[in-house]
Amino acid sequence: MRWSTWQIAWRNLGRNRKRTLLAMGAIALGQFTLVFVGSFSSGSFDNMIKTVTGPLVGHVQIHHKGWREERAIDLYIDNVCQITTELKSIPEVKVVSARIFAPALAAAGEETDAPATAEPAVIVGVDIGSESDMGGLLEFLPESDIPEGDSVLVGKVLARRLNVRPGELLALIGQDVDGFPVSNLFRIKAVLESNVEIVNSMGIVMPLEQAGDFVAISDQAHEIVIRGQDYKNADALAKQITSLPLPADAEVISWFEAVPFLTNIFEMRKWSDLIFMGIVFIAAAAGIANTSMMSTFERTHEFGMLLALGSRPGRIINMVLIESVIIGLIGVVIGSLLGVVLVLITAKTGIDYAIFAGDTSEDITFAWGGINISYVIYPVLELKYLYQGLIAVTGTSILASVWPSLLGARLEPVEAMRT
Predict the structure, then answer these.
(1) First to last CA, the chain
(2) Same domain, yes or no, for 104 and 119?
(3) Separation CA 397–CA 391 (nearest Å)
(4) Which residues of the chain have pLDDT under 70?
């Protein structure tokens, strides 16, 4: 391809600057929308997944086969210490945390003038060390509030209903795994505010050993939560764990199976990406097709002269195609730069989308699926939105200019020069 062909194509972009700028602007707007909205969607989805797979579900779970349906206290798994050791030997595993759950009645243990009231509660026995790591139930709990000995943490809502405060006694009444009534007094170490709704409203969090003593189980747990390197690889990690020598009544599931509604959202997100890709296609096609067609009609005389001087029709086609591709690429670059800059800024500041819905309350979370998810979203820049837009616009530029370029190439030189 001759260099002069590129020169003529570039020069023609300045013939009607307003039309050229409008076409570039439409493409830039489409690409900006794709980059920013896609990054916002990625940040929102990651925030939701990490919130769910962190303190609540984990990436993989091990529990008794009937536990998810019945939640009965006697549906536990044995040999927790051995299983935990084997799990930690897998390189992809970052955190392993065993949990015990038991229903109970909770009441203030201090003597007061007010009549004593009991509230339904759930004892949550956890591995304090594991749950204090990133993504655990106690991730944001100050070290000074970590429960030990006979001390416990009380969910924020439950503490308000019981009218109890840190340092006071809490009475718990329940049943052990054999159905015998048990009761004890515990010292409240702190009031816990968690992303997990059931912990906030009913939770009595205590060390795993202490919970085991209360319900009369040892080296057993109702659930083992595993967090790996990446939540996207949960299915592969679950297959690895299944190959371990687990108890016959144990069940291994990934978060995809534990929270299927998130899997549906995962699939819906793919469709949203296609929709925004379509926006870029439409913007590019509308802008470039109009520009190419008008340019071809305005340059009929010029094309006739070139054909009369011996230029081949292929050169006319190349000129129109080059003009369209240049318009598309410049628009993509501008849109990408604007999108990346805005994403990088908001990735640090966050976007509180509750404001756009008119919610001006101080609460920055909303409850959904048993967890509290933050309204503040931190967009995540993904390179796929940049190259997808580039490919989409380049392809659309060529397709949208094929018909105008063929019209120019098929002109009769004498008739075109008279126009």
Answers:
(1) 28
(2) yes
(3) 10
(4) 1-10, 12-16, 110-116, 262-263, 266-267, 279-280, 283-284, 286-287, 290-311, 313-317, 353-374, 401, 403-419
Convert the pLDDT of each residue in 104-136 to its tens digit.
999 987 655 545 678 999 999 999 988 888 778
**Do 302 and 387 lie in a common domain?**
yes
pTM: 0.70
Amino acid found at 178: D
Measured CA to CA, the distance from residue 102 to residue 88 in angstroms comes to 26
pLDDT confidence of residue 116:
62
Q: How many whole angstroms separate alpha carbon 140 and alpha carbon 124?
A: 17
Residue 181: per-residue pLDDT: 93
How many domains, in total, are found in the chain?
Answer: 2
Taking a C-beta distance cutoff of 8 angstroms, is the pair 288, 328 a contact? yes
Query: What six digits make up the tokens of 219?
Result: 């080296």
* Listed residues 210, 243, 258: the one ending a domain: 258
Do 239 and 314 sit in the same domain of this protein?
no
Residue 358: per-residue pLDDT? 55
Q: What sections of 248-259 are H helices per DSSP?
A: 255-258
Beta bridge partners of residue 60, listed in sequence order: 226, 254
The answer to whether residues 155 and 193 belong to one domain is yes
Q: Which residues pair with 352 in a beta bridge?
A: 376
Residue 303 belongs to domain spanning: 3-52+263-418
* CA–CA separation, 81 and 59 (whole Å): 20
Same domain membership, residue 348 and residue 299: yes
Bridge partner list, 63: 223, 251
Residues 352 and 377: their CA atoms lie apart, in Å, by 6
Which of residues 238, 258, 278 is at a domain's end? 258
72 and 27 assigned to the same domain? no
Residues 203 and 124: beta-carbon distance below 8 Å = yes
- pLDDT digits over 205-247, tens only? 999 999 999 999 988 999 999 998 888 888 899 999 998 888 8
Question: Hey, which residues does 97 pair with through a beta bridge?
Answer: 225
- Shared domain for 271 and 343, answered yes or no, is yes
Nearest residue to 382 via CA among 33, 43, 28, 31: 43
246 and 271 share a domain? no
Query: Which H or E run includes 223?
Result: strand 223-228
Both tokens of 119, joined, read 């509230």
The Cα–Cα gap between 244 and 252 comes to 10
